[in-house]
């Protein structure tokens, strides 16, 4: 995900990198396999979680790095679910 920020306007490379990200998520969360519609909030939370892990790893090698997820961290007060 961090690489997509650094690719500039290369749309083909961004599409390839984002497909790779989705494939990585699918290996750990089979619910997101294929093109079936899934819960967008859950997918976003998984993406942000992996982005934070990646950011912490980058920070350990490059202390000046600031993880973009830190700007979006908050505690969810309410959750609405459908049965």
From TrEMBL:
It comes from the Eukaryota. Pfam families: UCH. Residues 20-81 form the Peptidase C19 ubiquitin carboxyl-terminal hydrolase domain. This is Peptidase C19 ubiquitin carboxyl-terminal hydrolase domain-containing protein.
